[in-house]
Amino acid sequence: MPLKSSPTQIAHSKQTEIVKVPFNNLAWQWDQIAATARRDFDRLFESSQFSSGPFVAGFEEQISEWLEVAHAIGVNSGTSALHLALLVAGIQAGDEVLIPAHTFIGTAWGIVYIGAVPAFCEVDERTGTIDIAAARKLVTPRTRAIIPVHLYGQPANMDAVLGFAREHGLKVIEDAAQSIGATWSGRATGTLGDLGCVSFYPGKNLGAAGEAGLVVTSNSEYAERLRTLRNHGQAERYVHSEIGFNYRMDGLQAVVLSHKLRRLAEWTRERNRLAAKYSAGLLGLPLSLPEICHQSHCWHLYVARTPFRDRLREALAGSEIETGLHYPVPLHRQPCLSKYVRANASYPVADRWARESLSLPLFVGMSDAQLEYVVAAVRNFFQ
Known about the structure:
The protein is built from 12 helices and 13 strands. By secondary structure, the chain is α/β, with parallel strands linked by helices. It has 2 domains: 30-261, Aspartate Aminotransferase, domain 2 (3-Layer(aba) Sandwich), CATH 3.40.640.10; 264-382, Aspartate Aminotransferase, domain 1, CATH 3.90.1150.10.
């Protein structure tokens, strides 16, 4: 059984003094783009085109080419993206939408906003993504859609998802909030279903300087309606064809995202390198380490699992290492969603992921010395 370690018991591999390892370092990313981005900020403020406008349109064109998808519609958050995607997919009050029980609660919000019903599915033991075998047992005449979540940067099994959806006539809305840079069969996550949703929350692999999101689709009719809905339902200025929302992306976020996108491929390669270094360094410990189970991974998070999660986290905090919990309360245990949990439903795998998962620091700009220090601290804990 592992014993609690004190900071003095953990020495740096090079015998230097303890260095703090943050969970992320967004300032490093800003340093990489600051010089060129500031020039575009000047242009933005001179033009005063802050809401939507040419900077947002330019970013939409840039990222649609990067993702190789016909339409990319910028919005103000990943949550808004999911809400709008459900609306244009035709989901209505009373419809049921299949989602994994282990995910961020934002996956469920759009369903609830519409008055539809989230149907919580058990998750895969190895990946934490939706278990299609479990989803099959939850299909009813009211089931209309499925939202696979590409968790922590690992794609869900899209062959299984798409085949299942075709079999039951379901819309597929990908929650790619954490997976930009990952692919399935050579295609970017988010582009395989009817619609895909991306989050640009600051800590994401492609993060804004605030809140922002994206909906992508190959369906021109969906794209046209998405552009209307995000802008107060205006088909033309001051003519509101339907109830709409103020979900527009702002120009400042578009500038930041545009400059970061140019570096995303390089940053994704670095995340893969760091993840491989973690896996090699932690091999042999009583930890469940993340695997590349489905073709590619963009390593938004490096999530290890152990029954001693809380004690390990405390030990790492004592050594000035920041960690994260993603996510300690699964959807079926959220108080606000309790009425949607089916009678006698159980989710032992999702509960175990929630109870045992610990996100170790992994970010572009992280030094090998910092990573090795984390590895030494984890190994010391288990010794």
